[in-house]
Design brief:
- The protein is an alpha+beta fold.
- Helix content is about 50%, strand content about 20%.
- Helix 1 packs across helix 2 and helix 4 runs antiparallel to helix 5.
- The longest helix has 27 residues.
- It is globular, with a radius of gyration of 23 Å.
Length: about 250
């Protein structure tokens, strides 16, 4: 391995705001001599967490990082509110008290003894509440936020599917390029993402207020019909695309 290359690469990344120990994390991957790889770095910023994907490529015998993708999911806080009979803060606390990671086989488990599967009973109750919460348009927004907050790193893809569609609604991201070994530092990228997040939040609030009925405060009938029409058009496009592929 070219240790001088690893040293220079890690120094470049440290100047960009990444942690000192990144050199060893690079070496653990470079020793396999891949043509390229992505190094995932998670950096706490105040109460937020930045996820950085460093794209590393090999050019000849040397490795270099051309850019990194940085994303922010702003700390998700539930308001003091009841939506469709579900207290948002109470369900948030209940989900926070559950260890969502898959457990190893427990020899103490007895189906006839509910105390040995209390965790799973609590999960079932919470999932039922999330389903009820998702029955309304606004409730679904909060349910998706809770799923992302508590399930993102739990490894549930095989059961609940990928959360990327939900993540896209709450995540703000930006690509940062290295030019001549220098790039915008992570700290500055974080402040830029905070500004983008505030802008997105303000725009969403304006759209929601504009769609509400001035008398009832509910979403206008035209908005609901419009959403259904868009969903119908998407289904029709997918169907015609599928038919077209079958004819080829």
């Amino acid at each position: 391995m070219d240790t001088e290359n690893i040293s220079a690469l890690s120094a470049m990344l440290i100047r960009a705001g990444f942690e000192e120990g990144i050199g060893y994390r690079l070496m653990q991957r470079i020793c396999f001599r891949p043509s390229n790889f992505i190094l995932v770095e998670r950096l706490p910023k105040n109460k937020d967490m930045l996820t950085c994907l460093l794209h590393i490529e090999r050019n000849g015998a040397a490795y270099n990082c051309g850019y990194y993708d940085v994303s922010l999911i702003k700390g998700i806080v539930m308001p003091e509110r009841v939506e469709n009979g579900i207290n948002l803060q109470e369900i948030d606390l209940a989900m926070g008290d559950i260890d969502w990671r898959f457990q190893a086989d427990d020899s103490a488990f007895r189906l006839s003894d509910p105390s040995t599967w209390e965790r799973e009973r609590n999960i079932s109750q919470v999932v039922g509440q999330l389903t009820k919460l998702s029955a309304t348009e606004e409730g679904k927004h909060f349910a998706d936020a809770l799923k992302l907050k508590h399930w993102a790193d739990a490894g549930f893809e095989g059961i609940i599917g990928n959360l990327n569609a939900i993540r896209a609604k709450f995540e703000i991201s930006q690509r940062v390029y290295f030019i001549d070994g220098e790039a915008i530092p992570v700290g500055e990228a974080y402040r830029f993402l905070l500004n983008k997040w505030m802008e997105k939040k303000i725009q969403a609030k304006k759209r929601y207020e504009a769609a509400k009925d001035p008398e009832t405060g509910d979403l206008g009938e035209n908005v609901v019909k419009g959403k259904k029409l868009v969903q119908k058009k998407i289904r029709e496009r997918r169907k015609s695309f599928k038919i077209g592929r079958e004819r080829l």
